[in-house]
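pls design
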């Protein structure tokens, strides 16, 4: 990996953020973690583009990836 790749803000096409199983809507995150609003909110800027994977039931970064990637379509979002 090149050092400049660490500063690349673009997301790979097969990243979770582009997957049909990935949900990063703040309202969905708040429902999944009801106590979250005690600390902050699902709308918090520190959350960046993190979200929930409905395939693996995990909270993860939009830049993560896995072998179950399925490209999201407009109706999935």
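designed seq:
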């Amino acid at each position: 990996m090149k050092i400049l790749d660490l500063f690349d803000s673009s997301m790979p096409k097969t990243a979770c953020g582009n997957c049909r199983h990935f949900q990063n809507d703040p309202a969905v995150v708040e429902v999944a973690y009801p106590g979250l609003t005690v600390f902050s909110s699902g709308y918090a800027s520190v959350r960046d583009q993190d979200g929930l994977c409905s395939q693996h039931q995990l909270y993860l970064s939009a830049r993560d990836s896995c072998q179950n990637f399925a490209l999201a379509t407009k109706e999935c979002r």
